[in-house]
Please model this.
Amino acid sequence: MDVDVLTWTEVATITTTLADAVAADGIPDVIVGIVRGGMVPAVLLAHHLGIRDVRALEITHTESDAVNAAKSDRPVLRNSASLGRLAGGNALVVDDIAGSGDTLAAARRQVVLGGAASVRTAVCLLNLANWLSCREAAGGDAGEREPTYVGRRTSRWVVFPWERS
Model:
């Protein structure tokens, strides 16, 4: 099994690259981390960008943390109240990895419903193996699933440092 085990140093490099790209387009008012995997990079990005308003949104698409874990048919939203009201601000939604882009799309919709005036998305990694097959299934149109910022691309299962015990 091809597995990419990331180090904290690699995550720091990826989030610095993402922060530079985000800053070049303007600092958001709020960062929304997708619980659980997106919270660590969300906090790192908040520190890089000098943003104190960090929110959480619990959306899950995999049924466990196991390598090649089964996915639910669509992302499941839990505790939408954790997002709060965004009052017309500019939001950056952050996740650790995007496979199909479905979780990002669901998070983007929730953030818009929460009142954000604009929403950008950032992922540490884009899993090309999943991404390309999902694009083909959608007729090549990624639409709202397309991340605004991608730190790195991979075709392997990824284990992040916070997932290891």
